[in-house]
Amino acid sequence: MHWMEVTVESSVLTSFYNSEDESNLLLPKLPTLPKNYSNTSKIFSEENSDEIIKLLGDVRLNILVLGGSSAFIELYAYGMFKIARVTGIVGTCLALCLSSDLKSLSVVTEVSTSGAPEVSYFQLETNLLYSFLPEVTRMARKFTHISALLQYINLSLTCMCEAWEEILMQMDSRLTKFVQEKNTTTSVQDEFMDLLLWGKASAELQTLLMNQLTVKGLKKLGQSIESSYSSIQKLVISHLQSGSESLLYHLSELKGMASWKQKYEPLGLDASGIEDAITAVGSFILKANELLQVIDSSMKNFKAFFRWLYVAMLRMTEDHVLPELNKMTQKDITFVAEFLTEHFNEAPDLYNRKGKYFNVEKVGQYLKDEDDDLVSPPNTEGNQWYDFLQNSSHLKESPLLFPYYPRKSLHFVKRRMENVIDQCLQKPADVIGKSMNQAICIPLYTDARSEDSTRRLFKFPFLWNNKTSNLHYLLFTILEDSLYKMCILRRHTDISQSVSNGLIAIKFGSFTYATTEKVRRSTYSCLDAQFYDDETVTVVLKDTVGREGRDRLLVQLPLSLVYNSEDSAEYQFTGSYSTRLDEQRSAIPTRTMHFEKHWRLLESMKAQYVAGNGFRKVSCVLSSNLRHVRVFEMDIDDEWELDESSDEEEEASNKPVKIKEEVLSESEAENQQAGTAALAPEMVIKVEKLDPELDS
């Protein structure tokens, strides 16, 4: 995994960075999702809305690069949307680095053959990204907006599904049970019609209403339906529709960009594919409007039906009925009669499909994430516009009209929309990926070290991009005698250019104590190394003859000493890059380094892996058993000096000097261990100060 930020500057890019995003002026601000739903909605909640805006407001292009063992590498603009997919990568990707000038991508892979795995370095040209950087940046911004809006719509729909409650299905289930248990041949619809017209209910219907549904249950059901439908209605109007309209706007702008073929066609932006995506969003908006109509109609129907049924049940119990409830006009009676006629028909085929005879509640079917047709699709009979479209072959196929799916749920139309948008935005990733061609291949070495995949993530080989000098650096070690050397390979990001001292090996000679002027000489093997910043490499060394607990060193290696211009001619690689480097060790120039400062003894710790960050001024050292971490603050201005002593004194006291240390308490460590007993052992973290200018 590698995340880089583009540093290339141009007048076109600068004007784009400084220009106001028109969508902020033309589109209303997306309302934040309500907090009382699932945790996922908190991504777009009030507290996090600024973070989303900040993310979408970052106009300078940054790219997340991912590689693994799947034979491809993917590039994600702003870490969110895929803009390139490089296929044909042989082996497992151990390290990768995209240059900040977008001219090349460096990759280190491991190919397992019948023998030991072979590790190689590749450099791929990325000239299309470099040549069309302003266009790629604009396109990536649109992709990111679209990606965020799809997520917003998805979460809005999730909130709607949560607002719909299972209690709303109670009427359907009770009526189905009534059909199964009743002994009379009278239909349920006739039973309720008799109650409406004559005010009398059969004994079986009275039992259903008074013992199973109950007056209190009916009141609760009515309140639940009103509350649930109102919440869903608000979410559709304020969130789903505003998100869909914003999505339509950004896709329309993307279509306009695609029409400028000179600029965007080489990147794979296809106007016809975007047109399909716009059409799919239009269909989704139509389906959302249909749901609003169903909710509005259902709320009116249920309100009238429950009011009538509530009064009828109060009369059965001979309770007092309030005068305002008792008033019922002929229009109200007709309304309830039509509701009973439409919803209370027994449907045996529905029972075979859904296990119920009725579908009184019609909103929930729109929120089901399934491919089945709607149980009760909207009635289009007598709809003049619908009939007109069906009878017109020209309009039926017109690109100006959004297709309508009357028998499908909102979830189904949403999934179709997402698939069409994904297909439309997938083409640029394929085109840009295919443009990345392998320009350089350097076989490095065979690796017989058997380590699990977790540990391989921590260590060599390590890639770094120097943004100032536009160079790729690769740190690695070769087995056997070269294990005591760390090799540094460097290549120019522009493949057409060469660089001096392209390959050099570093041997670690002696380390001098400042206070005692004692010189520590031994044979050191390089365990791990990473770039601290553009000018410095942080290295963990092992003294092969040192006493356990005092055999690990943390070293800051300045590259200015490695690439000394005065004697650079003496350290030129004389071998061939086409032959594996471990087969020509003698041709690799070796520079022996002696340190009087920039190092520290790592006591009482089997340090194995290191990570450095010059921007944060820290280095982290991880033990070989992956249980202990030490964090060193590398650039401290405090005036202090380490209490240096001879090896004999240190051996006698056997107490490491700690400048600043934070260790997990015993109870915290036990809690941590208990919580992750099956996953990982207890980890102890220590924080210490280390000034690179002071000796150890």
From TrEMBL:
Keywords recorded for this protein, A-Z: Cell cycle, Cell division, Mitosis, Ubl conjugation pathway
Region (Disordered): 642-678
Biased composition range(s): Acidic residues: 642-651
InterPro entries named in the record: APC4, APC4_C, APC4_long_dom
Residue ranges occupied by any Anaphase-promoting complex subunit 4 long domain in the UniProt entry: 121-319
GO annotations of cellular component type: anaphase-promoting complex; nuclear periphery
A Gene Ontology BP annotation from the UniProt entry: anaphase-promoting complex-dependent catabolic process
Record domain Anaphase-promoting complex subunit 4 C-terminal half WD40: where: 463-633
This protein's record includes keyword Cell division: yes
Keyword Cell division attributed: yes
Database matches in PANTHER family: ANAPHASE PROMOTING COMPLEX SUBUNIT 4 APC4, ANAPHASE-PROMOTING COMPLEX SUBUNIT 4
Name of the protein this chain belongs to: Anaphase-promoting complex subunit 4
Organism: Balaenoptera musculus (Blue whale)
